[in-house]
Amino acid sequence: MCGIKSHYYLTFLTVDLEGRLDMRELKYGMFFVLLILSLSFKAYSEPSRGWVDDVEVHRLVIVVTGGVNVRVKPELQGCTSQSGYGQMYASILPEQPGLDKMYSGLLAAKMSGKRVSLWLADDKCTIR
Questions:
Q1: What residues contact 40, with CB distance under 8 A and at least 6 apart?
Q2: Are 122 and 47 in contact (CB under 8 A)?
Q3: Residue 25 has pLDDT above 70, yes or no
Q4: When you count CB atoms within 10 A of the terminal residue's CB, does the N or C end of the chain come out lower?
Q5: Which is it for the CA torsion 48, 51, 55, 56, positive or negative?
Q6: Peptide bond into 47 cis (omega under 30)
Q7: Are the beta carbons of 96 and 128 closer than 8 angstroms?
Q8: Phi, psi of 44 (to 5 degrees)
Q9: What letter does residue 66 receive in the DSSP assignment?
Q10: How far apart are CA 88 and CA 78, in angstroms?
Q11: Are 88 and 52 spatial neighbours (Cβ–Cβ below 8 Å)?
């Protein structure tokens, strides 16, 4: 082939014109794919008590009881929301002190695109 090395790049693989694979790039590609998969599983894991850091407020719903349901990205799973909104919504209960301040802060974060941290008080995803 006149000493010219031409390559076709396919995502993580390099194939030369003779059809040989560059195994080093295959190893790095496989590592990258496994890393992305492990991080995506963490994003959809079951919630527990404690801080949920660096989330984007996706949707706020005021329910008839006076509480607020909050949906964030990356999404939560396994929550027990108020008024049957589903397992992806955390809740601020109507008897929560400072509910109006919490709601206004979440609304400001949603409108400005800022990320927030939430404290989940229990396995039902009650925000405190």
A1: none
A2: no
A3: no
A4: N
A5: positive
A6: no
A7: yes
A8: -110, 25
A9: S
A10: 7
A11: no
Tokens matching residue 103: 């709601």
Could you report the per-residue pLDDT of 81-113, keeping only the tens digit for each?
988 899 999 999 999 999 999 999 999 999 999
Nearest CA among 25, 28, 29, 32 for reference residue 7? 25
Give the position of tokens 């949603």.
110
Whole-Å CA distances, 81 to 56, 62, 69, 125:
18, 12, 7, 8
Question: What are the DSSP calls for 68-107, one per residue?
Answer: EEEEEESPP-S---GGG--TTEEEE-TT-TTHHHHHHHHH
Specify the DSSP class assigned to residue 61.
E
- Tens digit of each residue's pLDDT (9 = 90 or more) over 108-127: 999 999 999 999 999 899 99
Rounded CA-CA distance 99/63 in Å is 13
Whole-structure pTM value: 0.63
